[in-house]
Fold this protein.
Amino acid sequence: MRDKINRAIVTFFGIGYLPIMPGTYASAAGVLIYLALKDNLYMYLAVTLIVTIAGFVCARRAEELFNNPDPRQVVIDEVSGMLIAYMFVPFSVSTVIIGFFLFRALDIIKVYPLNAVEKIGGARGIMLDDILAGAMTNIALQVFVYVRGIL
């Protein structure tokens, strides 16, 4: 039973089993969570924290369950990263769209330091590269909002 719960969490309720682009679909799920909670900061922060902690805790066991050090089925990291990308960013349609595509690009291309962090391995490697991609996206969105506001 514990392994079934673990699989449900790390695959974000089955999204990780999709045959193509599971990370993109998981990122879209993160966007939907953001849109649902964006007007309730405390709930948004709580959900982001819960998803992130659950990712670290469950990704450790996922390596064994999927017999792979970085299983493609594990997509909770994308959900966590996406939620971090929008944290404290003022809502607009443009920030949502730019944030989604920028996060996906960073996650796929793995620019430095994301590529180095991913090599850490284990639950930390699985989670931290997406958390950092989310933070990098967040910084870019904050700059975008600021520059747009002064122009």
